[in-house]
Structure formats: C-alpha cells, structure tokens
Amino acid sequence: MGSTSLPNTLLTANLSSKLPYQSTLSINNHKVYTEVVDNNKTRARGLMFRQSLPQEAGMLFVFQDEQPRCFWMKNTSIPLSIAYINSQGEIFDIFDLQPHDETSVCSTQPAMFALEVNQGWFSQKGITIGDKIHMDSPIRK
C-alpha cells in the first residue's frame, strides 16, 4: 500500500487528544517515526526535558491553519533540526537548533506543520527545500 499525502490525511483526522499520536512519515523514501502533537499543551512541551531521541524518530507539530511559526529550545537538551512545512506537505525551511537556546527560530512563510528531528538528519538523508512529506501509517494513539 502506498503512502498518502500528509495534509489530506491529517486535516481529516480528529486530532484532539491530550496525548501525542504516533505516525510514520516518509520523505524521499526515508522513514521517520513521529509523535504527532496537535494542541497547545503538547505543542508547548514538544521535546522539552528529554535526554535523547532515537535516530529515526521525530516530532510532528500540527496546527489548524497556516501562519508564521517560531520555535525555541527552552529546556531542550537534544540538538535538533526543524523543517517548516506548508499545507501541501512541502518543506520550505530547514534550520538547526541548539540545545537550551531561547532565541526564536521563525519560518520564512506561513507553516501548517513543523517537523523536529535529530540535528543533521535532513542533511544526512539529502532532504532539502521543496521535498514533500508523506504519511506511511495512519495517526494512532
């Protein structure tokens, strides 16, 4: 069974749980196993207070609409990379984030999604601006 478009699947799903959902995403045939956070409480906590993140894991932040987005690394010990993604599932920004840096790192255009992974994961996989994200497995608790 092939992958489905990320935005269509996410926008039709009921994403209102207090706990993160899980899903498998692929970008250029590279899989990343994500926690999906879709409400203010889970998005605000993000990857704070964690000491590690498995190599092929990440966190997908889902918003209700496209707006400029900003992230920081308060209370986050893991060096991360973030991709900002539009409603069509296209990556338009990738930034590296440093542990405990409280400087806001903002998208250059409105984003509906943000994907955080271990720092360097995107570059190691050859993932760049313009690549699209696809959902391989349905969102589940």
From TrEMBL:
<dbReference type="InterPro" id="IPR003795">
    <property type="entry name" value="DUF192"/>
</dbReference>
<protein>
    <submittedName>
        <fullName>DUF192 domain-containing protein</fullName>
    </submittedName>
</protein>
<dbReference type="Pfam" id="PF02643">
    <property type="entry name" value="DUF192"/>
</dbReference>
<dbReference type="InterPro" id="IPR038695">
    <property type="entry name" value="Saro_0823-like_sf"/>
</dbReference>
